[in-house]
Design a protein that fits this description.
The protein contains 13 helices and 21 strands. By secondary structure, the chain is of the alpha/beta class. Strand 18 and strand 19 form a beta hairpin. Helix 7 packs across helix 12. This is Adenylyltransferase ThiF.
């Protein structure tokens, strides 16, 4: 029979393993087989001191370019800290990062023997040093229950007196992927103590559940034991009155602290049956300021009109940039066909966009302050809505219009002119051909309505108007009654990213700006005025006259002055 090179190599490996088993007094019960994935396996019992450890060596599909790996025969067993979770493969001397096809599977078996002989009996901690740094994500990959405890939150837990119990609230965030993972975080400590969990604490989201914090007496130590042994012992550390409380609750989270270390238990009782789960406590990496301007925009307040595809992306990006205050205005509801471009997801379908976007921003940065209003700003808007928008804009540092609605733009432009507030706006042209980003800053640019007129005049000089398409959908009918062409999520994303940069420039000092001009027509493909993708046309505005400091709307004292001038008395 003719064998392929890979088959011939496997035959030689099997012969080598058989020879090793015959010549060694530390290998028993060798047996070749095939696992559920169709991979060749070699089961054996390794003798390490007084222990008999059933193991399984598996040849991966990419062998010999990747090494065979060794794991416990029992998928629930953890043999060493050099192991990828319970039942996972052992981290041995021969790994994908240093394996060479000239190495042999017998070398891998000998490496497993060396590791497990260095691991004391009934102890998962061996004296073998790790060959590579144990990064936190890899460590957590084998932990299905995790208790994330930042240092500042741990410090607050340790303020409680030893021997005392305190009410706490925690968030539980559940994710189901290859396996179910549950992440617990502290939300609040005490009912009336006034202790406030730092911003690196609970975050936003997850199910809020009650729990108990118990501070062990100072002399009590939390021993370094295997988790299966530790959780039962820790539960017995609780005083009888507290155990009775937990049992009566049926399902309770219990955080225990000895002033230096914290653990989290979940105790569930069903009649006389009790189940205790131990969470793996870990400290997240210290947060690093990754934003370009750091804390510059933490106190900045931005009003975003429109929470559609463009507005939702702009809001999310600004939250990541560190903007600390938002007011979101949109009276529309999210539907399933909006999901092709919106920052929101299926969980938000049927909800008002502004309110859902508020939740999205809080999940990006729990420290932001976000208001959301389902405010209708169409041309038929009531006087009350106009007055409400005027009040909102007066408290903001910047207004962004992403609606592509001429009536909304005129309303926002008029109020910004009266209140001397900068306005930034953007448009995505039909079919994803390109877009416009523009700004109007008091005392630098013309007022927004004047700036918009100059943009139209600039287009008129080119001999054609921008391909606006129908409002809001960014679609345009193709030739010969073809299906409409719509802007893709990527197209909208490009304009959104540039609009965010334009907004940050409007808030920054002149010398820090990235975009020197107040307006840009940005091409994403050939067509209209664009000769090629990313063909960009800057527009320079004319004089900035028109901003009148201290101007007031006709709804205020200006009306009274007019009435006095024309001789009409107020009958109110």
């Amino acid at each position: 029979m003719d064998f392929t090179a890979g088959e011939a190599r496997l035959i030689r490996e099997c012969e080598g393993l058989s020879d090793l088993a015959a010549a060694s007094d530390w290998l028993e019960e060798p047996q070749f087989g095939k696992n559920a994935h169709g991979l060749l396996t070699w089961s054996f019992v390794l003798l390490a001191g007084e222990r008999r450890i059933p193991l399984r060596l598996v040849f991966p599909a990419l062998f010999p370019d990747l090494p065979p790996f060794v794991l416990p025969a029992d998928s629930s067993v953890r043999l060493s800290q050099h192991q990828y979770g319970e039942g996972g493969e052992l981290c041995l001397q021969y790994r994908p990062d240093n394996w060479h096809p000239d190495c042999k599977s017998t070398d891998v078996v000998r490496s497993a023997k060396a590791l497990l002989e260095a691991t004391p009996k009934n102890d998962a901690f061996s004296d073998v040093e790790s060959a590579h740094p144990a990064d936190l994500p890899s460590l957590l990959s084998g932990c299905s229950r995790r208790f994330m405890l930042p240092p500042d939150t741990a410090r607050l837990l340790r303020l409680r007196l030893a021997g005392h119990a305190t009410d706490i609230h925690m968030t539980l965030e559940r994710r189901v992927g290859g396996s179910e993972v549950l992440v617990a975080r502290i939300a609040s400590i005490g009912l009336d103590s006034g202790l406030r969990v730092p911003i690196d604490g609970a975050g936003f989201g997850g199910r809020v559940v009650p729990g108990i914090l118990y501070r062990l007496p100072d002399i009590r130590q939390i021993p370094d034991l295997h988790p299966e042994e530790l959780k039962g012992l820790l539960y017995q550390y609780l005083p009888s009155w507290l155990r009775k409380w937990v049992e009566d609750a049926g399902d309770m989270l219990v955080v225990m602290s000895n002033g230096r270390r914290e653990v989290l238990l979940r105790a569930r009782h069903n009649g006389s049956k009790r189940k205790i789960d131990l969470f793996h406590t870990f400290e997240p990496p210290k947060a690093i300021e990754r934003r370009l301007h750091g804390k510059m925009f933490r106190e900045t307040s931005i009003c975003i009109i429109g929470a559609g595809s463009l507005g939702s992306k702009v809001a999310a990006s600004l939250a990541r940039e560190g903007v600390g205050h938002f007011m979101l205005l949109d009276n529309d509801v999210l539907w399933s066909d909006n999901l092709v471009r919106n920052e929101l997801d299926e969980m938000d379908v049927g909800h008002h966009k502004a309110v859902s976007l508020r939740h999205r921003l809080l999940r990006i940065n729990p420290a932001v302050k976000v208001g959301a209003l389902g405010l209708s700003l169409t041309s038929q808007s009531s006087v009350q809505h106009i007055a409400q928008l005027s009040e909102i804009i007066s408290t903001c540092d910047l207004v962004i219009d992403t609606t592509a609605d001429s009536g909304v733009f005129r309303m926002a432009a008029a109020i910004c002119t009266q209140k001397l507030k900068p306005l930034v706006w953007g448009r995505v042209y039909a079919g994803g051909l390109g877009g416009l980003i523009a700004r109007s800053i008091p005392s630098e640019d013309p007022p927004p309505l004047t700036a918009a007129s100059q943009l139209r005049a600039w287009c008129d000089e080119k001999g054609m108007a921008p391909p606006e398409g129908r409002e809001h959908n960014y679609g345009v009918q193709g030739d010969d009654d073809d299906e409409p062409l719509f802007a893709s999520d990527g197209d909208v994303g490009v304009i959104a990213n540039r609009l965010v940069r334009h907004a940050l420039d409007a808030l920054a000092a002149t010398e820090m700006r990235v975009h020197p001009e107040p307006a840009y027509f940005i091409g994403l493909r050939k067509g209209w005025i664009f000769d090629h993708p990313f063909d960009t046309h800057p527009v320079i505005f004319g004089p900035h006259e028109g901003w009148v400091k201290g101007s007031t709307s006709c709804a205020e004292e200006g009306v009274e002055r007019v009435m006095t001038h024309i001789g009409v008395q107020d009958d109110a």
